Amino acid sequence: MKILNLYAGIGGNRKLWGNEHDITAVEINPAIAQIYKDLYPDDKVIVGDAHEYLRQHFREFDFIWASPPCPTHSVLQMTRYYDEKLKYPDMTLYQEIIWLKTFFKGKWVVENVKPYYQPLIHPSFSIGRHYFWSSEYLMTVQFPSEYSQIESDVKAMQVLYGFDLSKYKNTVEVRKVLRNCVKPEIGKYIFEQITKEVTHNDE
């Protein structure tokens, strides 16, 4: 199966997908992309604009996962009324949902945080503090609450997520990188449920 993993980060969502698939990952930050490549040497890693890559290459894949940037949608925006960091919500999120829903013939999922506003497109399902828009409806399942309880403890986060990023501490902000990860067990659950009947889109 040909998979496109957009805004890949260090590949938290992809960690438990196995190595039997043809996976292309797109990440704009070169230092983070290098960590992904170190972790998944068999994947094709592209340093570039995931949004534009999706537009140009979506027809080439059977399954697409996108996790566009979440800060402008986060409830933290509600604390920035007097702050110059207050920004408009980034509509990339909804552009990609509409694009995939309308044009993509394979399976797909778009992940983001639950926003501070009523979502403009109703999500397909939610898990924890995240919404998911998808080609498939999945039952919401509960995952261990400790995921949200240790986010100030980098060592505990590394143990829980199964990543040792100690050698990268001088090149990336490790805590932020881990916080941006989709938890591997959640990525595995969604991947297995959505792709269980996928065949190559050229067949």
What does this entry show, briefly?
This protein has 203 residues and is an alpha/beta fold.
Task: Give a structural overview.
This protein is an alpha/beta fold and 203 residues long. The chain has one domain (2-140, 184-195): Rossmann fold (3-Layer(aba) Sandwich), CATH 3.40.50.150. The chain has 6 helices and 7 strands; from the N terminus they run ββαβαβαβββααα. It has helices at 30-39, 50-57, 92-103, 154-161, 174-179, 184-195, and strands at residues 2-6, 22-27, 44-47, 63-66, 107-113, 125-127, 130-134. Strand 6 (125-127) and strand 7 form a beta hairpin. The longest helix is centred in the middle third of the chain and has 12 residues, at 92-103. It is globular. The mean pLDDT is 87.
Describe the global form: globular
- N-to-C series of helices and strands: EEHEHEHEEEHHH
Tally of alpha and pi helices: 6
Q: What gap, in angstroms, lies between the N and C termini?
A: 11 Å
Query: Can you tell me the number of structural domains?
Result: 1
Uncertain stretches: none
Q: What's the CATH superfamily, by name? A: Vaccinia Virus protein VP39
The averaged pLDDT comes out at 87
Major sheet: order of its strands? 3-2-1-4-5-7-6
- Helical content band: 25-40%
Extended strand count: 7
CATH architecture annotation: 3-Layer(aba) Sandwich
Quaternary form: single chain
CATH topology: Rossmann fold
Major sheet size, sense and barrel closure = 7 strands, mixed
CATH C-level name = Alpha Beta
Beta-strand residue percentage: 15-25%
Which value, in Å, is the CA radius of gyration? Answer: 16 Å
Q: Structural class of the secondary elements? A: alpha/beta
